[in-house]
Design a protein that fits this description.
The chain is an alpha+beta fold. The chain has helices spanning about 15-40, 65-80, 100-110, 120-145, 155-175, 190-200, 205-210, 220, 235-250, 255-285, 300-310, 320-355, 355-375, 380-395, 400-405, 410-425, 435-445, 500, 525-535, 535-555, 580-585, 595-635, 640-655, 675-685, and strands at about 90, 95-100, 180-185, 185-190, 445-450, 455, 465-480, 485-490, 495, 510-525, 690-695, 705-710. Pfam families: cNMP_binding (PF00027), Ion_trans (PF00520).
């Protein structure tokens, strides 16, 4: 509701007026409530509803039994949901603590119909369990087969662990692998029947089935021979799948790659140690200098020999028999091939892990070399190094756009929304605009790092971009010397937004903005915004309206101190009206100095006109005397008058003509001497006029300019 302007000469009490407006507002709200009640009687009223009459209509026919059962089930569900959760406590000897109910555990552990192998962490955890079982079989089956570590006294322990590993294999074959989703023709198949059918048609299913065949039954015929469990090592597909899934969810996957490559090397040495003990047992323990002599820990001694032989360190005993020579040659060949491939793989893993750091160092070295070539000052070189170091430490890369360019546009947008949308959404200039326009703008933002003391923008520059503070602080400087801190802007603040929509190529900066510490800013230039707004005309209109409002607010002078409100009886009388601007200009601001100056100027002009008046009076008297002489001569003799008339033009030509004043009035009719002087004085005082005018100032915010002109009247 807009307030009506008060009548001239009528004063109102602000407090009473506010109270009356509040009462009117409440009455209107109440009237609207009753109007809605009349239009729609279902709407609840603030008043109490009347009691229901006892006379009720006839009852509807009872629903059938099936509907009753369904209703009862729904009521039971609603009651179960409405009941508060019971507290479950676990009693201990010294304390009693609360624990969640078993239902929540069961709901969380319940497997879905299908599993997404890329995002489900429970599937990755299960693959880790199966991988542990697979590594147990790979490491201990050769060990138990070659070394005499499995004895009748500890066979039961080996069998228990073997059974646990077999259970993991069976659960993976029956429960988990048939539920894994797959991609067919670009579509993700999540139907349970389709996933089972697909799994059974793969090679992985055949290998998994072979790996769980219970050849352990042959223990009853051939004794407890671990070689009968060699088929368990065929489940290698699950092991490699676990490696891929784990690397996908790890932040620093190269660490796991190094550990995995080291594990490959240790496993190959383990197999070589087992083969060396088998060859020694075949030749006879201690039979020659080359074989194991049977002293010390058999596994460690054989492992030591495998390391020296496979890595080709040397210093081993020379083989003597043909079997020993052939075995040693094969060992050397395998060692050169395997060890070189593992070393190369390790080099690739470490190189990939440090590729970013190497790129950063190469950029710094090239920049430093360039600066040294052109003899750049040390101060500038230090600032460049500081920028490189801070940018790399804060972002992990020099340019974020290089990483995002490799992704599709949709993924770039998703990353930009998660990183920058919360900051851009705080900008008042873009509130109410199309969300898709803001998304397009996020992809165009450029991130720039400023060092401490760097000028983001300087006073007087043409502004063509807007800045959004992502991290750090900036200071706005002003004052006579430009060093006074007017305000400090922190993360999430925006400045320079008016420059985006200002006409005429941008407006000038009104202050210096300096980075206080390291500051990371987003920049959006005017050209980029115009390219985006071409596709969003509604948002463009809204931004133009907001820009006009911001420009008006910028042009207004800063608000002064609040005017104190009168108290007591003084509030009944209105405030004194302000002096008109024209009258203020006449007075000059202090007393009546302005008006006094105007009067003094007019007196000076009158004194300049007096000499002109004296010259005019002298000329008129001279002309009158000459006329009298001419009349006397006419009376004496007509002939002389005729002669005078003939000779008069010649005399007039010979006589010098006195120059008339430039400001002299036109020739006047003849009048007597007494009337001539006052008439001249009256005309002299009215020659010039005073012109006062008000013109708007060419600069915004300076109001109007008063002009006073003294102008001569035009000649008639």
């Amino acid at each position: 509701s807009t307030q009506k302007p008060a009548r001239p000469g009528f004063q109102t009490n602000e407090y009473a007026d506010a109270q009356l407006q509040e009462i009117v507002k409440k009455l209107r709200e109440r009237a609207n409530v009753y109007k809605e009640k009349l239009n729609d009687p279902v709407i609840s009223s603030p008043e109490a509803s009347p009691p229901v009459c006892k006379s009720t209509p006839k009852k509807a026919p009872p629903p059938p039994k099936e509907e009753k059962k369904d209703e009862k089930k729904e009521e039971k569900k609603e009651e179960a949901e409405a009941k508060p959760e019971e507290d479950h406590y676990c009693d201990m000897l010294c304390c009693k603590f609360k624990k969640p109910p078993m239902k929540k555990y069961m709901e969380y552990m319940k497997l879905p119909d299908t599993i997404d192998s890329y995002t489900d962490r429970r599937y990755v955890a299960w693959l880790m369990l199966v991988t542990i079982a697979y590594n147990w079989n790979c490491w201990f089956i050769p060990l138990r087969y070659v070394f005499p570590y499995q004895t009748p006294s500890n066979t039961i322990y080996w069998l228990v662990i073997d059974v646990m590993c077999d259970i993991c294999y069976l659960c993976d074959l029956i429960i988990f692998q048939p539920r894994v989703r797959f991609i067919r023709g670009g579509d993700i198949i999540s139907d349970r029947a389709e996933t089972e059918k697909f799994y059974r048609s793969t090679v992985k299913f055949r290998l998994d089935v072979i790996s769980v065949i219970p050849f352990d039954i042959l223990y009853f015929f051939f004794g407890f021979n671990p070689a009968l469990r060699a088929n368990r090592m065929l489940k290698h597909n699950t092991f490699f799948e676990f490696n891929d899934r784990l690397e996908a969810i790890m932040e620093k996957a190269y660490i796991y790659r190094v550990i995995r490559t080291t594990g490959y090397l240790l496993f190959i040495l383990h197999i070589n140690a087992c083969l060396y003990y088998w060859a020694s047992d075949y030749e006879g323990i201690g039979s020659t200098r080359w074989v194991y002599d049977g002293e010390g820990n058999m596994y460690l001694r054989c492992y030591y020999w495998a390391v020296r032989s496979l890595i080709t360190i040397g210093g081993l005993a020379e083989p003597q028999t043909l079997f020993e020579i052939v075995f040693q040659l094969l060992n050397y060949f395998m060692g050169v091939f395997v060890f070189s491939s593992l070393i190369g793989q390790m080099r690739d893993v470490i190189g990939a892990a440090t590729a970013g750091q190497n790129y950063f160092r190469s950029c710094v070295d090239n920049t430093v070399s360039y600066m040294n070539t052109y003899s750049i000052p040390k101060l500038v070189q230090n600032r460049v190094r500081t920028w490189y170091e801070y940018t790399w430490d804060s972002q992990g890369m020099l340019d974020e756009s290089e990483l995002l360019e490799q992704m599709p546009t949709k993924m770039q947008l998703a990353v930009a929304i998660d990183v920058n949308f919360a900051i851009v959404n705080k900008v008042d200039l873009f509130k109410g605009c199309d969300t898709q326009m803001i998304y397009d703008m996020l992809l165009r933002l450029k991130s720039i790092v400023y060092l401490p003391g760097d000028f983001v923008c300087k006073k007087g520059e043409i502004g063509r971009e807007m800045y959004i503070i992502k991290q750090g602080e900036v200071q706005v400087l002003g004052g006579p010397d430009g060093t006074k801190v007017l305000v400090t802007l922190r993360a999430g603040a925006v400045f320079g937004e008016i420059s985006l929509l200002a006409a005429g190529g941008g407006n000038r900066r009104t202050a210096n903005v300096v980075a206080h510490g390291f500051a990371n800013l987003f920049i959006l230039d005017k050209k980029t915004l115009n390219e985006i707004l071409v596709n969003y005309p509604d948002s463009e209109k809204l931004l133009m309206k907001k820009a006009k409002v911001l420009l008006k607010q910028k042009g207004k002078p800063a608000p002064g101190p609040p005017v104190p409100q009168p108290r007591g009886l003084a509030s009944l009388f209105g405030q004194k009206q302000e002096t008109p601007k024209l009258f203020k200009a006449m007075l000059g601001g202090k007393g009546r100095e302005g008006l006094a100056k105007l009067l003094q100027l007019k007196k000076q002009q009158e004194t300049q006109v007096k000499p002109q008046k004296i010259d005019l009076d002298f000329k008129q008297t001279r002309e009158n005397k000459s006329k009298e002489k001419k009349q006397a001569n006419k009376k004496t003799s007509k002939k002389e008058a005729k002669a005078e008339t003939e000779t008069k033009p010649k005399e007039d030509e010979k006589k010098p003509v006195e120059p008339a004043a430039p400001s002299a009035p036109p020739a006047q009719k003849e009048k007597p001497k007494e009337d001539a002087k006052p008439a001249v004085i009256q005309r002299a005082t009215s020659k010039e006029s005073l012109i006062i005018s008000m013109t708007p100032s060419p600069r915004a915010g300076e109001g109007e300019i008063l002009k006073v002109e003294i102008k001569e009247k035009e000649k008639k």
